[in-house]
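Batch job 17 of 40 flagged for manual review because the log was empty.
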Amino acid sequence: MRTSTNQRLTVYVDDEPRRFFVGLRVRHAVGYAAAWRVERREAIITDGDGNRLDLDGALYDGERLYVEPLDVPERESND
């Protein structure tokens, strides 16, 4: 069986098209800064239907991802 070594897919992150190789994950598509905010529970990633996605989820051609900030309560200062 012959496979193409340069299969790519287009994923839209916040409506901006980006091209990736097959096999990469959601964390690769959204980038380091957004993934870091998700890990700190400061943001979530949703698909075009509003479903929450995991950072280790697979990417699909034509998929739409949205990084949505969460309301994080500010810490009290000890003045």
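Reviewer: the log was empty due to a logging misconfiguration, but the result itself is present. The CA atoms of residues 12 and 64 lie 5 Å apart. Unflagging and moving on to job 18.
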